[in-house]
Amino acid sequence: MSAVLYHGQPNGASLTVLAALAESGLAIECRAIDLLAGERHALDGVTEAIALDLGVEGEGPVLLVDGEAMTESVFLAQYFDEAAGGAGLQPADAYARWEMMMWCRQITERLSPAAALLGNLAASQAVVAAIPQAGFDDLTARIVSDDLRGRWLALHDDVSIPAQIADSEAKIIATVERCEKQLADGRDWLMGSFSIADLVTYSWLAGMRLLRPSAFADAAPTNAWLDRVAVRPSVIAALARATVSEPLRAWAPGPEINRWG
Amino acid sequence: MDEVTLYHWEPNANSGKPMLALMEKGVPFASHYIDMLQFDQHKPEYLAINPQGTIPAMTHNGLVLTESTAIMEYVNDRFAGPNLMPSDPQDCWRVRWWMKFMDQWLGPSFSMIGWSVFVGPMVRQRDPQELAAAIDRIPLPERRTAWRKAINGDFSEAEMAESRRRVGLGIAKLEEELGKRPYVGSNQYSLADINIFNSTYSLPLSQPDLAGKDKTPNIMRWLKRVYSRDAVKQTWAMGKTDLANRYGLIMKEIEA
User: Fold this and answer.
1) Is A183 a domain residue?
2) A119 and A179: one domain?
3) Do A73 and A100 have their domain in common?
4) In total, how many domains does chain A have?
5) Which of A49, A83, A117 is a domain's end point?
6) Distance from CA of A50 to the nearest CA of B (A)
7) Are residue A156 and residue A129 in the same domain, yes or no?
8) What is the CATH number of the domain that holds A40?
9) Measured between alpha carbons, how far is B211 from A261 in angstroms, rounded to an integer?
């Protein structure tokens, strides 16, 4: 089996997957790519491309296994856990697994698009706008998904909709409130024992603490939990792969905002 | 003794997923029909079970579970019976990937078209004040917005065009996938088949320009393979419409 994990700076989906790989103990080669240069859309050796072309998560990491491009950070974390024969990233009890998957789905459907929108406006818009037009045209022409290309174009042209920004900020606050509620009984980890839910939530929320600190001002349990996740050896190892000084401020176009309103 | 109750609408789309998963596993369950077009899902007796007012929901020995795909995963993990997930981790990943592709990308486009041509016109015939009160009772703001759009026919031409684009592309990609493997994402019947079958079995009738025995032979052979399963027949028999009869006639025309 040949396997390579192509990843961006350790934040968002790339951080989840890099940390999950470290938790699993699997020896899989990791190669950093520049997501904002469109390198994700020019990978060599892809023979099965649908998950890369039409993935829901946007510019997340790509695990290439025997030519098949695998995407979506939660499922890649599950894959590592299962390929390792059970690395303890998923609860054994069926109901606890259901709770974890429901939590992860809340995060990837609500927090991820919101964090990506706010993060990209703050950190990536100027970078993408500075790409010379011919290069940007080449980059977007390589993107197969019309809706992902639309998010790149909106970022490039700085088309920010005030209602979407306000809604995204509300979703950050709502996520912190959910974490507060979940951690209220004094537990260390979101699901009781450490799991993919901690990695996914940390990966999208930690950067928001830098960008929207007011949302975390009255959330001591959530701040303490973020600090606990930050010192997990797997998270430290993932963050050590950064090639920028503040990876939690590095973003690339993410999932789309729910089309239904 | 396990006590399982499923709150569901027709054996279709989201409601059909846990119904069929329970049938495939051979898990006995009490069926509680929620008439979506009468807004049963937003009435106090149902909100006492699922405060979010979404269907389906399942109770198992006092535990409450929601979200159709997640309920299916629970059913498969928790009960004996045939394993509806592959054993190979990469196949499992592929099954999950296809379910998310349907749940979050393709399915909402099917829904937007379905609500605009079917659900909206059906409920629009009611008393406007009664409808407004029914919408005000919907707990989730996103669902309130969606219902208002469906009832008022407020989907823009651009939204509908995007949904049609996604449906066309999604069907083409499913046709490709089923040219590679006998089932969605793996070589065995799995939760991905249950998930996607529940949103695609009507394609030959609802999207005849995009799907049919000449245009999408792989999808049609797969539909027939799934349709012929005993669990599908038992599940469809629980519906209050003539779905099974109508689709049975189509399937007869297709070679397995």
Assistant:
1) yes
2) yes
3) no
4) 2
5) A83
6) 8
7) yes
8) 3.40.30.10
9) 29
Asked whether residue A246 is domain-assigned, the answer is no
Summarised one tens digit per residue, pLDDT across range A20-50 is 999 999 999 999 999 999 999 999 999 999 9
Binding-face residues of A in 62-81 toward B, CB within 8 A: 65, 68, 70-72, 75-76, 78-79
Q: Please, what are the domains in chain B?
A: 4-78 (3.40.30.10)
Q: Specify if A60 maps to a domain.
A: yes
Q: Are residues A73 and A43 in the same domain?
A: yes
Q: Do residue A137 and residue A46 come from a single domain?
A: no
pLDDT > 90 fraction of chain A, expressed in percent and rounded = 97
**Out of B89, B97, B112, closest to residue A72 by CB:** B97
Nearest to B89 among A79, A98, A105 (CB): A79
Q: What Å distances lie between residue B210 and B91, B155, B163, B214, CA to CA?
A: 28, 22, 14, 10
Phi, psi of B63 (to 5 degrees): -85, 145
Q: Per-residue pLDDT tens for B47-90? A: 999 999 999 999 999 999 999 999 999 999 999 999 999 999 99
* Confidence band, pLDDT 50/70/90 cuts, at residue B246: low
- In this structure, the answer to whether residues A193 and A72 fall within a common structural domain is no
Decide which of B148 and A173 is more confident.
A173
- Kindly report the pTM of this predicted structure: 0.96
Of B66, B89, B105, the CB nearest to A83: B89
B80-109 burial, b at 16+ Cβ within 10 Å, e below that, comes to eeeebbbeebbbbbbbbbbbbbbbbbbbbb
Beta bridge partners of A193: A191
Say yes or no for a CB contact (<8 Å) between B159 and A146: no
Residue of B nearest to A144 (CA): B169
> Rounded to whole angstroms, what are the CA distances from B239 to A37, A88, A219, B36, B69?
52, 41, 48, 13, 20
pLDDT digit string, tens, across residues B93-108: 999 999 999 999 999 9
Chain A and chain B share a number of CB contacts under 8 A equal to 79
Beta-carbon-side half-sphere exposure of residue A55 (alpha carbons within 13 Å): 30
A31 contact B CB<8A: no
The pLDDT value recorded for residue B204 is 87
Q: How high is the pLDDT of residue B243? A: 63
Q: Which ipTM value was assigned to this complex?
A: 0.97
Residue B196: C-alpha distances to residues A126, A163, B23, B102, B192 (Å): 41, 33, 16, 7, 6
Q: What is the CATH number of the domain that holds A112?
A: 1.20.1050.10
**A104 and A219 co-located in one domain:** yes
Cα separation, A48 vs A5, in Å, equals 15
- Range of A105's domain? 94-232
A88 found inside a domain: no
Domain-terminating residue out of A83, A110, A136:
A83
Q: Does B93 touch chain A (CB under 8 A)?
A: yes
Using DSSP's 3-state secondary structure scheme, residue B60 falls into strand
